[in-house]
Amino acid sequence: MKKVILAPDSFKGTMSSIKVCDIMEEKIKKFFPLAEVIKIPVADGGEGTVDSFLKAVGGTKVRVKVSGPYFETIDSFYGILPDGKTAVIEMAAAAGLPLVENRKNPLATTTYGVGELIRHAVLNGCRNIIIGLGGSCTNDGGAGLAAALGVKFYDDVGKEFVPVGGTLSRIERIDISEMQNLSGLTVTAMCDVNNPLCGENGAAKVFGPQKGADEETAELLDRNLRHFADVIRSQFGKDIADIPGAGAAGGMGAGVAVFLNAGLKQGIDVVLDTVEFDRLLDRADLVFTGEGKIDGQSLRGKVVYGVAARAKKHGVPVVAVAGDIGDDIEEIYKLGVSAIVSINRMAIPFEMARHRSEKDLALTMETIMRLISLNAAT
Known about the structure:
The protein has 2 domains: 3-40 and 276-377, Rossmann fold (3-Layer(aba) Sandwich), CATH 3.40.50.10350; 49-267, Glycerate kinase, domain 2 (Alpha-Beta Complex). Helix content is 38%, strand content 20%. The protein has helices at 17-31, 49-57, 92-95, 97-100, 112-123, 143-148, 203-207, 215-236, 248-259, 267-274, 277-280, 303-313, 330-334, 350-353, 357-377, and strands at residues 3-8, 36-39, 60-67, 73-80, 86-90, 128-132, 152-154, 160-161, 173-175, 186-190, 263-265, 286-294, 318-325, 337-342. Its EC number is 2.7.1.31. InterPro entries: Glyc_kinase_flavodox-like_fold, Glycerate_kinase, Glycerate_kinase_RE-like, Glycerate_kinase_sf.
């Protein structure tokens, strides 16, 4: 075995994709020390997205101070890829749930700092922006981001303000005349949900509770997002309410679509395109992928599906390693996965298993590599 590609997702609650890659590489090198191992740690657009891209293709991390979820000044960052023109931004770095800790309040949190990250990247010469929509604590429809880029919002008495989730209903007029010049800028949003902006499957009702919204608050946030969509449709003739993915990250999907003309794409496709995965598959002997749980949901644009579909076109076998294996996985084999292996070695609850996940992954990879080396020797 001369060339192996590693492209796993994180194992949620246990291991980052970078850690998974490192463990896999160690065991591969133990049995095939001369093998070329290409590591492509995959992130879903949330926390860790920048580090995953920089680990996969190189580049630099730029540190900058921006506004946090409550407009306080915080230390943040984004990445610039080796071409010097592509910036990778994770909105979680300025508007993520970990930043609010036990102060969750989607009525008051803002994406303003995310807009400041974009502005800084553009002023730094970047013309391509990849933005990860995941792990947010906000529900402002991206209005804060827009405000940081020069968009002005006015209430019914003509007073300018920066809307948050709880005040979107106050918007009467939006002025984009002083918005930062973004001509020639290409924005791609990593978006792994198809939720619309409003309604029972919208941003507030589906994702609001994890951000601290009770049922009454979620209803209010939903009405406010609908008002926001109505104003945008009335002023700009754009209907953002039902765009698939508009409800991602508290409506940020809608915000980047309307204000930045961003394309909403599956996160795995963005990653694989950026690292030129199809080119890397040339002469590859095997691909390892994986995620915390593989089941029927893995067919819906998840990492395993995206990796296997591309590898199949090049005739490269794929082994998927998972924390847990659910039902309804037969279709995954048809898509190009040759084998699915669970790292669970003991019948114990997740809260106990998570503490031994790294050890279990290492032991499982050792077993897989023993089988492969046995086959190679025959």
